[in-house]
Structure to design on (282 residues):
């Protein structure tokens, strides 16, 4: 059994010396290859611009297969939440979508076997002086199946059934408006759970600011006598404004007892957020 005895309701902002840490980020939407096609250069395109700026770029596709590959290209918005919900809305619906700033061509492309092809995109930032923070959307790339290669012949007395798997992947187009926009987070849920035989401290974090964040998240545990037990870390996750993520901190090897947990959320800048929790492991 694991349970909270009590927890703090407010996040306290703590000023600390900035930690010098190397940044490593890879956000995967889906497998980066399908039907022999691979996206080159990763699944994120990020740029820092100012109102009125223009940026041009390419997305390179490699067809590693033995046959020509056909793909279609389209745009969507993208938002996600700590409870696992993910939405690929119509482009331009979400408040911080940059889909309307983005044009991409071609919308369909055929890539010969063992060759590469390019998608061209252009970002035109509006001249609005009140723009600040991070704006984003995604470019979806999806295979177009060749139905002639997937025929199923009917036979007397039998039902003809064909199964076709379609995999698509998304390339993020992220636009930061200069160094503007505030950074802010909110804890929206914390609890201890038993998950696959492990004791997990689950923490849900929402980005309430105007710029994307990828904070370091960890808990420092102290026993009832105030003795330091250890530091328990979670993987870093990118959080866009208005979105939220769920962090898992593994406490499986912590002995039974009552503890104080100091949860730390470090943006990687001069501000660090923290909250105290009382918990009992039984």
């Amino acid at each position: 059994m694991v349970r909270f005895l009590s927890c703090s309701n407010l996040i306290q902002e703590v000023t600390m010396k900035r930690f010098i840490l190397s940044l490593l980020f890879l956000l995967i939407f889906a497998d980066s290859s399908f039907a022999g096609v691979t996206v080159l250069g990763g699944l994120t395109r990020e740029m820092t611009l100012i109102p009125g700026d223009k940026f041009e770029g390419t997305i390179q596709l490699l067809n590693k297969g033995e046959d020509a590959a056909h793909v279609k290209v389209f745009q969507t918005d993208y938002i996600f939440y700590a409870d696992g919900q993910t939405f690929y809305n119509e482009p331009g619906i979400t408040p911080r979508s940059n889909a309307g700033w983005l044009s991409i061509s071609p919308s369909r492309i055929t890539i010969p076997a063992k060759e590469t092809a390019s998608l061209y995109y252009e970002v035109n930032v509006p001249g609005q002086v009140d723009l600040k923070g991070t704006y984003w959307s995604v470019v979806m790339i999806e295979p177009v199946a060749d139905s002639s290669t997937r025929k199923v012949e009917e036979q007397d007395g039998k039902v003809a059934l064909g199964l076709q798997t379609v995999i698509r992947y998304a390339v993020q187009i992220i636009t930061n408006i200069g160094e503007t926009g505030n950074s802010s987070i909110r804890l929206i849920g914390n609890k201890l759970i038993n998950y696959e035989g492990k004791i997990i401290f689950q923490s849900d974090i929402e980005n309430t600011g105007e710029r994307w964040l990828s904070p370091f998240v960890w808990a420092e545990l102290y026993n009832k006598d105030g003795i330091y037990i250890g530091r328990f870390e979670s993987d870093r996750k990118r959080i866009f404004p208005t979105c939220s993520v769920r962090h898992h901190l593994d406490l499986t090897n912590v002995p039974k007892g009552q503890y104080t947990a100091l949860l730390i959320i470090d943006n990687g800048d001069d501000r660090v957020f923290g909250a105290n929790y009382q918990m009992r492991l039984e």
